Amino acid sequence: MSLSRFLSTTSLAAAAATAAGAAGCGGDDSCGPGGAPDIGLIASNPAVTLTYGHLTGGLNGDCPAAGAPAGVISLSIEATQLDGQGRITLCVGRPDLLGTSALPLGVDAAAQVRVIDLVGSDTRCSYTIDRSQPVTGTAHASGLCGNGGDPAGFALVTDASLALTRTCGTTVDSTPVLLHGRVAVAVPAR
Q1: Please, is 1 exposed, middle or buried when counting C-beta atoms within 10 Å of its C-beta (0-12, 13-18, 19+)?
Q2: Model-level pTM?
Q3: Can you tell me the distance from the alpha carbon of 30 to that of 26, in angstroms, rounded to the nearest whole number?
Q4: Contact 53, 36 (CB under 8 A)
Q5: pLDDT single digits (tens) 34-69
Q6: 77: how many CB neighbours lie within 10 A of its CB?
């Protein structure tokens, strides 16, 4: 699936709004990012730090989970790199579980939190996710209401390790990084 198709607005917008309202806690003080910063999802090791922020989420139905309860629509989360031209895109097949459990990250379609795309750059090199290497670790949310569709937003907490393909001129190799942070996710009203 192409990234542009993945991030497209789907015909599920009306269903998402209905599901968010039915499962939501709109106006409840427990909904929202709870003071989490807008910036701070970091992919790093001692040689590189890629910082992402301004996360947005939407119930777009891009990675539906088999066996999900009726009305649960998959949640897409996207962020941009602050000091380069990068981006990160995640998809959560069961956002109803994200606020109650630490869900494992992965790159394949079976992952509960799927890393769709991770691209970054610094002054010397460019980076993309190395899909040949395993992803370990988890993501969970706090303040998540309406299965991720509540316009109050929520905080995403990530603690994982993965590998990036690093390209520096003609040199291409793989470098392990930690993907970590607690950061606010804005959910635009539909």
Answers
A1: exposed
A2: 0.84
A3: 9
A4: no
A5: 999 999 999 999 999 999 999 999 999 999 999 899
A6: 27
